[in-house]
Structure formats: structure tokens, C-alpha cells
Design goal:
112 residues; mainly beta; 2 domains; five-stranded antiparallel β-sheet; three-stranded antiparallel β-sheet; 2 helices; 8 strands
């Protein structure tokens, strides 16, 4: 099963999480269930976050909410962020549209 989720804001301004559970082993893949919840913190508390800003063409992936202690440009246009213990907490890809086929699309797959 694959869980796809996204935050949405309702017309009255409330924030919700929409989750779609898909069975990719069937051909074609079948949506098993879709639901909306206001319990965003339950599912997004320590979740990895991916953001893309098309105005500056930067893709940012945050692995942890730990404070950034150091940042290194490992390769040209790829900035790695580390916490105080040297753990990778995030990365930025500059000029993302030149490096990523579609920076506005993310597929989340949990193998297993």
C-alpha cells in the first residue's frame, strides 16, 4: 500500500490533511480509501517536508526539525544542512527545474 497525503485549506480557512491509500500491486493501481482529517500533527509532526518555490526555483527537502548548525555546498547548486552532531537535516537544490524533471510533483512511496 502507498499513502499519499497533502495539506489543504478549506474555504473557511481551516487546515486539513487529505490522505489517499493506494494499492499499487493491482493493474491499474486502485485507490483503497481517501479521507480528510484535522489531526495534522498526528501525521505531520516529524514528517519529512518537501517544498518547491518556483519564483526562485529552489527545491527544499527537510528531513528533521533539528536546528541547522552548518551548511555545505556539496556539489554546485546542492546545499546540505547539518545539525550540531553532524546529522543531515535538510538539503536545497538551486535551479531545481534544471536538475529535477518536475519539481512541482512529489511521489511518496513506502516500500515493504
Amino acid at each position: 500500500m502507498i499513502a499519499c497525503q497533502s495539506q489543504i485549506r478549506s474555504e473557511d480557512g481551516r487546515l486539513f490533511l487529505v490522505r489517499v491509500i493506494v494499492n499499487p500491486q493491482l493493474d491499474p493501481a486502485v485507490v483503497v480509501t481517501v479521507y480528510r482529517t484535522s489531526k495534522i500533527e498526528k501525521y505531520f509532526k516529524d514528517a519529512m517536508k518537501v517544498t518547491y518555490d518556483p519564483e526562485v526555483d529552489v527545491l527544499r527537502i527537510v528531513f528533521s526539525n533539528a536546528p541547522i548548525e552548518e551548511s555545505d555546498e556539496d556539489k554546485p547548486g546542492v546545499i546540505m544542512d547539518y545539525d550540531q552532531e553532524g546529522n543531515l537535516v535538510g538539503m536545497e537544490i538551486l535551479d531545481a527545474s534544471k536538475c529535477v524533471e518536475n519539481p512541482m510533483s512529489v511521489e511518496h512511496v513506502v516500500a515493504g
